[in-house]
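User: My instructor asked us to take a sequence, write out its structure as tokens, and then describe one feature of it. I'm not sure where to start. Here is the sequence I was given:
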Amino acid sequence: MRTCQIYKLHHGIECQKEAGYSEPDGIELCVLHSRNKEKDRTVFEDEIKKKLNEQDFDFSGIYFHKSIDFRINFKGFVQFSRAEFASLANFRGATFEGDGEVYFDEVKFNGLVNFSNALFYNKVDFSFAEFHHDAKFNSVKFYNDVSFYYSKFLFSADYSKAEFLKKDATILFCNSQLNGSTLFKDTVFFGIPDFRESKISNVDFSGTEFLLGAQFTETEFLEGLHFFECFFCKNGGTVFFDRSKFVGIVKFYNTKFLGPTFFRNSEVEGEVRFENINPENQDFHVKFIDLKIYPDSILEMKNTSLINAQFEDTDVRKIKFHNVNWCSYHGRKAIYDEIYQAKKRLESVENFAKVEELYRYLKINYENNGDLKNAGDFHYGEMEIHRKSSPWRRYFSWYAVYWVLSGYGERPLRALFVLAGLILILPAIVWSLGTEGYLNTLLFFIEKATLQRPAWPQGITWGGKLWSTLSVIFIPGQAALFLLALRNRLGRRR
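Assistant: Let's start with the prediction itself. The structure tokens for your sequence are:
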């Protein structure tokens, strides 16, 4: 008796059944493994029933040439490795339990595959599987590790209301291709889903909960990605979008990020929008580090808190900011990069230069959009970092003087207090050197500062005359700084 030669087609698969079909390539196969679509259906179905009756769930390499119904309870080891389904594969409500793992690796689904409401208590492997038709995984419950590593979804896939229930589970979608319309609506990941190096388009994550974070490192977002009302890191964890590429439209709307979120070395070629992030005012700890924003692309942040956002080495001139909240630092709006630098004592020239550049680019951004009030705060930040970057500039330069006298022309109250101090203190100095009466000396200084020619007070000394002469410079000069700061603050309001 000639036995099935499936091992020639799929290395590692052995079959002792009689070979009754010759394939075009000369390989002889049994009724189960033959690719002949005209093979005897009755004999085929009898062989399948026999395996099920014997609790033999090894379907490796089998070619299902017609629709098949597996709405049953699978117990123990289950293997569909390298099987091929030419038509409908119905696993709706199937249960996979008992000892042993479940393998659908390298399976090819040419027709609709339906796993809706299925229960996977064992580890399940769909790695290198190909879905050439719609795939339904809605309301599936995965109680253990699951892998879709290198899988290809060429049509729609529906994971709506699916639950990945194991907290420390391995949930792999690495290197997968989601090319059709894919739904993860109201899906719950108790573990960390790993989409690294995948290519994703037309995927809807609306209402999805990533309870311990998510891994999207080096993922390519091609078109139509929606993260509406998602929940990241409810139970802790981190979200990674490092080195990812956003080619199409990606929207994060009304989404909560409760753990650290990273967009380091990512690229924006299409349209990425963040709106109403953390709507209940939770902290949004995010790092947009060395983000590359291409010409004609859009990166927009609207109604979002950026109190804990870092933008190191990112050209923030290219980002659209609408009604965002910046952190408050020493009574002014600031970027978290400056606060982080102070906390970590990162005081190298390079670190100061990076933060100074961020402030400069934010100032330009807001000036170009007509928001001169916020541009003034970022101008203050730029000047402050420039002053602090050098010990000499910090304490002894004209920058230090400009900061003390008027807050770089942005603090009218400070300038007014200094002005009032000069008007009151300079006459006191001259009076202490020998004039008669403080009030007369004060009146003399006011007339002198307003470029009148009052007579010298009685008893004035040469030292007093020197201070009086300098007051012609100090008081009008400080008054000019006060008016400049007042104009900058009030004149910039919309």
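For the description part of your assignment, you could build on this observation: The chain is about 30% helix and 25% strand. Try explaining in your own words what that tells you about the chain.
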